[in-house]
Amino acid sequence: MTQKIFFSVLLGLGTLFSVHAAYVNETLLFEETFSTPDSLSKWKTNGKVTRLEKGGPDNGPCVKLEVPKNGNAGISMELDPKKITGMIAFEAMVKGENLRQGVKPFFGPKFMLFHTNGKKSSWPEPILQRGTYDWKPACKLILLPPDTNRLVLSTGIQEASGAFHVANIRIYRVREVPDSEVKAPANPEAARIPRGTFKGTNYRGFMSGSDLSPAAFAVLKQWNANLLRYQLNPKRGRDVSTPEKYLAWIDDEIKKIDAILPLCEKNGIKVALDLHRGPGTAISKVASNILVKETNLETLDEAWRRLAKHFKGDKRIYGYDLLNEPVIEDYGFRRTEKNPWKQIVERVVKVIREVDPDTPVIVAFEGSNSFIVNDKNIIYTPHFYSPHAYTHQGVLGKLKWSYPGEIDGIYWNKDQLRVAMKDIIEFQRKHNARIFIGEFSAVNTAKGAEQYLKDCIELFEEYGWDWAYHAFREWSPWSIEHENWSKPSKDNPRKRVLLEALKKNRPQK
């Protein structure tokens, strides 16, 4: 088995379904419980540390795949594409111990079903958590093309480190049923998560788009928004390929921000300055700022030095958002650090504090890998789109899901959203950290999107987090002024949810 087939990052997408529905397991097509000593003899192994052990769910057997340093460990098996056909779900129970992302954003724990049909190949996989966590389900639903001629099931660790435990691998043929036939199960994990006090949220608003006109700010005031996350993002065609050109663009952005700040002040809106494009960073489907060898940290320092020096003491500024959704891909320039992003943050914060001691600095939240910055005024900013299969349907995948409902084998409702926010909640409670949800959304074609947004906002408010909806007049499928993908809409359920939540804002001094 080649490395390329064993592991990849491409998503397998079935054909587009025209209606929303729920999907339930029907016929068991494949099962591996690792219940016999020779279970692994049927699998092709990759990596030195792969073994069976007890300690699986209900103390049953599991396979442990372990990599002390960045490397590979995994198992794979060829399956008969004549027996596994149509709409299927492949699932397993998984557990992580100190799982760390590798040098590319998609490296880490893997569970996937490679398949080919003709000249086309796909590698569908569920999104798996890094860090340390107890047993939880992993599941992915796909529609196998009728001419599928090869299937390879694989799981393990790709170019990363830690221990990944896998148990109870199964593949089911899936049946489509009405949403009403799927009932919400009990969620004991959600019940164990401490509740919030419903105190602390002061800022509610939007991510900026292309319209920053006086009329647009009048609309935001009418909606009672008091926060705008302003994207510093070069327009298509703007050359920022050298330090000189990048810093010239920063200077131009400062002028643009100066032009809108009076409008912000007039309409009671504070601005979070979001550096949406870093110097020499790359962009992919999984990250908007991939830091590579070409990333110029000296230019990043200078960009924030100029911004902080210019806006120092300006009460209209909510905070400095250091870099949008950063991912370290090639950190050879900081290979001595376990978390190179931490070192970069500390470096840039130091630069900012040399010229501006007071304005809050906003730092990307990294889930279980997050860290505390040694500074008196830090805001930590997660982005929340879970589950991506639902919020990004039609963008990252073609199956149409409903909320609340079962999505990729997990029933998602407000309880499960709370579980998905567990890392943020625990981090906040442990460190008394200030939290700002810099982005959240669901495409306007997602069934139940208004309930999804309502549940998200209620949880943000319960734990006292500020928030910004993605986005205001940027791309129509995210817009609350559109429905059915791109149809303008003066009134719709999603818009009503957002405007009702914004009523809680009070005038800011």
Question: Any overview of this molecule?
Answer:
- The strands form six sheets. Strands 1, 2, 3, 4, 5, 6, 7, 8 and 9 form a nine-stranded antiparallel beta sheet that branches. An eight-stranded parallel beta barrel has the order 10-11-12-14-16-17-21-23, surrounded by four helices. Strands 13-15 form a two-stranded parallel ribbon.
- It has 509 residues and is an alpha/beta fold.
- The longest helix has 24 residues, at 243-266.
- The chain has eleven helices and 25 strands.
- The radius of gyration is 24 Å and the shape is globular.
- It starts with a helix and ends in a 7-residue tail after the last helix.
- The model is unreliable at 1-18 (pLDDT under 50).
- It has two domains: 3-182, Galactose-binding domain-like (Jelly Rolls), CATH 2.60.120.260; 204-502, Alpha-Beta Barrel (TIM Barrel).
- Measured distance between first and last alpha carbons: 63 Å
**Estimated structural class:** alpha/beta
Major β-sheet, in short?
9 strands, antiparallel
- The name CATH uses for the topology of the largest domain is TIM Barrel
Give the CATH architecture of the largest domain.
Alpha-Beta Barrel
Q: Residue ranges: pLDDT <50 for 5 or more in a row?
A: 1-18
Number of domains: 2
Say which CATH homologous superfamily of the largest domain is assigned.
Glycosidases
Strand content: 25-35%
Number of helices: 11
Radius of gyration of CA atoms, rounded to a whole number: 24 Å
Chain-averaged pLDDT: 91
Number of strands: 25
Helix content bin: 10-25%
Which term fits the overall shape? globular
CATH level 1 name of the largest domain: Alpha Beta
